[in-house]
Amino acid sequence: MASNKFKFLSGLISLLIATASAQLSSNFYATTCPNALATIKSAVASAVKKEARMGASLLRLHFNDCFVNGCDASILLDDTANFTGEKNAVPNANSVRGFDIIDIIKSQLENLCPGVVSCADILAVAARDSTVALGGPSWTVLLGRRDSTTASRSAANGNIPSPLLSLFNQLYIFTNKGFTADETIALLGSHTIGQARCAMFRNRLYNDTNIDSTFATSLRQNCPTTGGDNNLAPLDTTSPTSFDNAYFKNLLNEKGLLLVDQQLVNEPTVYSQITEYSNNEEAFRTDFANAMVKMGNLSPLTGSNGQIRKNCRRLNEQISPSTRNVMKCQVLYSFS
Fold first, then answer.
1. Contact (CB, 8 A) for 234 and 194
2. What is the pLDDT of residues 55-107, one digit of tens each?
C-alpha cells in the first residue's frame, strides 16, 4: 500500500513538472544572448581544469538549489541584516561551494547581455557542463528560469537529503519531488565524483559490518573516532574525478562511503539496477541525464515571476552603485 502511495505521489508531481517544463525552451537565449551557453561552458571548463573537485561542487549546487522550492537560484542569496538565506542551512554550511565560479560567470554574462540570463539558468547549465568536463553525459538544458526574490533556510533544512539518512528516507524525499526509485538511484550515481566530510561517514567506518575491511582501515587513517570532522574522502575511491560507473562497482565490493550508498546493495528492489549500472555504463549515463533534465524542471519561476538578478548574491533592489562597479571588475579575472 505504501509503495502504491509513493508511485501515485511521484506520478502526480511528475505531471506538474511536465507542465512547468513546457514553459521553458532550449533556445531561450538564441536571440537575446546567443553566446550565453558558450560563455558558461568555457568558464566551467576552466574552473574544473584548475580544480577537478569543482565539477562535483557545481553539480551539487544545482541539486541543493532545486530541492528547495524549485530551481530558482535561492541558494545563491547571501544573508543580510534583514534577510536570511539558505547558505548557512545545515546541509549547506561549510559544505556547498562554487559560489565564486557562478559570480564570475554572471559577471561575464552581464557584460555581454545585461539583465538577460538568470542565475537559475546559469546553475542548470553549469551543472551539465561540469558533468561533461569530468567525462560524464550531456543533456539538453531547458532555459527560461527566473530568479527568486526569497529564500527559505527552514525549507533547506527540511528538503535537502542528508548523507546520514537511510535509503528509505532518501527515497521518501526524492518521491516527494516526483522522482521514481529508478531515477533516484540514477541521481545517487553522481556520487561517482565529489568528496564527503569525515563527519558524514565516521559512524559507517567504525560501526557498520557491510564494509570492506581494507577500505575501512585506509579511511580511518584520515577519519579518527574523534576530531577531523572536515577531513575529506572521495565518494568513489576508484576514479574520484571521472564521471563513470565505478561507484556502482564499488558498492558491489562493499566500498560505498556513505550509509545510503551501501544500503543500495542491501535493498532487493534496487539491487538489479545497481548490477545493471555496474555492467552497463551507457545505461547509467542515459538514465542520469534524463533524471537531471527532470530535476532541472522542478518548479521554475517563469514569465513575470521572480526577477533576473544582476548579482546572483543579492536581489536587484539590494545592489548599490559600488557593488555594480565590483561586478564590472570581476569580468577581468580569469582561471588561468
1. yes
2. 999 999 999 999 999 999 999 999 999 999 999 999 999 899 999 999 999 99
* Cα end-to-end span (Å), the chain: 56
**How many angstroms separate the CA atoms of 48 and 257, rounded?**
23
Q: How far apart are CA 140 and CA 84, in angstroms?
A: 33
Question: Between the CA atoms of 33, 39, 40 and 41, what dihedral angle is there, to the nearest 10 degrees?
Answer: 130
Within 13 Å of residue 143, how many CA atoms lie on the same side as its CB? 24
The answer to whether 198 touches 228, Cβ cutoff 8 Å, is: yes
Distance, CA of 159 to CA of 313 (rounded, Å): 21
Q: Within 13 Å of residue 106, how many CA atoms lie on the same side as its CB?
A: 27
Q: Say which amino acid occupies 310.
A: K
H or E stretch covering 137:
none
Tell which residue, 209, 95, 134, has the closest CA to residue 126: 134
Query: CA-CA distance, 178 to 171, in Å (whole number)?
Result: 10
Spatial distance between the Cα atoms of 274 and 255, rounded to a whole number of angstroms: 13
Q: Read off the pTM.
A: 0.89
